[in-house]
């Protein structure tokens, strides 16, 4: 199961700031286009967004 490391979380935070109205599906699709060798599910993005820290 893919997990986000600190770098992935920083990139996701920047993406959330750049596209705050995008859905979790849209953020997951964007991330998967950037990293087609290691795709993540919408639920992984959702957990990363709601994870404290």
Describe this structure in words.
With 53 residues, the chain is mainly α. It has one domain. 62% of the residues lie in helices and 0% in strands. The chain has three helices and no strands. The chain has helices at 6-18, 24-34, 42-50. The relative contact order is 0.21.
Quick overview of this protein structure:
The protein has 53 residues and is mainly alpha-helical. It is 62% helix and 0% strand. The chain has one domain (6-50).
Write the topology of this structure.
Elements: H1 6-18, H2 24-34, H3 42-50
Number of helices: 3
In terms of DSSP E residues, the strand content is: under 5%
Total domain units: 1
- Outline: globular
Number of strands: 0
Biggest sheet overview? none
Quote the distance from N terminus to C terminus: 21 Å
Task: Give the rounded overall mean pLDDT.
Answer: 89
Keywords:
single chain; 53 residues; mainly alpha; globular
